[in-house]
Amino acid sequence: MDGDFRTEFTRAPAKLRDRPALVLNADYRPLSYYPLSLWSWQDAVKAAWLDRVDIVSEYDEVVHSPSTTIRIPSVVVLKEFVKPQKRVAFTRFNLFLRDEFSCQYCGATGDLTFDHVVPRASGGITSWENVVAACSPCNLRKGSKSLKTCGLSLRKPPVQPNVEQLHRIGRKFPPNYLHESWMDFLYWDAELDA
To answer: Considering only Cβ atoms within 10 Å of each terminal Cβ, which end of the chain, N or C, has fewer?
Structure first.
């Protein structure tokens, strides 16, 4: 009986499953904005127990062990500063983020893929400066032709972004769920209205 309860709790902790913790660096900034740096409530509790983080804010819910009761953390701060990455990895996700999840030919936001501006068949390479987000219809229209030949033009030139540029763009795309305890830490560097 006791083993069945534990197994059920581990597989489906119901309301506790949806209690992520916002993870802040030691300077009280999120480790990343997009995707937002979040830990599961289990990881946040473990890090607090191991004294690797300070708990800044908590949910109303609690978890119990045989000897301890702890409120679930909603915001945690790392005790040691994690140096931000200087180089942005060339990934599909980061490419879409750079291009703000829109086709660089027509502006469509659905059914995205990527396209080589100078086709590989014409010697184009896979790089930040030659690959853009494109919707399937534009990508099919362009095929392995040049922009001039197919009558398409770029909305903006493709460039290699830096970490700050991606963070700035990422703030435009908040996740579906933002707990009220996170707000003071997510947009603290935004300009205030006069």
So the answer is: C
CA–CA distances in Å: residue 52 to residues 67, 75, 76, 138: 21, 13, 10, 49
Distance between CA atoms of 144 and 4, rounded to whole angstroms?
A: 58
In the 8-state DSSP scheme, what is residue 80? S
Q: What is the pLDDT of residues 14-49, one digit of tens each?
A: 445 688 999 999 999 888 877 788 999 999 999 999
Provide the residue count of the chain: 194
Q: What is the DSSP letter of 19?
A: -
Q: Which residue has the tokens 């219809």?
A: 137
pLDDT exceeds 90 at position 155: yes
Of 75-84, 101-110, 129-138, 163-172, where does mean pLDDT reach its minimum? 163-172
Q: Which of 14, 36, 79, 71 is nearest to 172 (CA)?
A: 36
Is the peptide bond preceding residue 35 cis, with omega within 30 degrees of 0? yes
- Per the CB < 8 A criterion, the answer to whether 163 and 114 are in contact is no
* Statement: residue 181 has pLDDT above 50: yes
**Alpha carbon distance 98, 161 (integer Å):** 7
SS3 content of the chain, % helix, strand, coil (to 5): 30, 20, 50
Reduce the DSSP state of residue 30 to 3 states and report it: strand
Q: Of 29, 26, 45, nearest to 37 (Cα)? A: 29
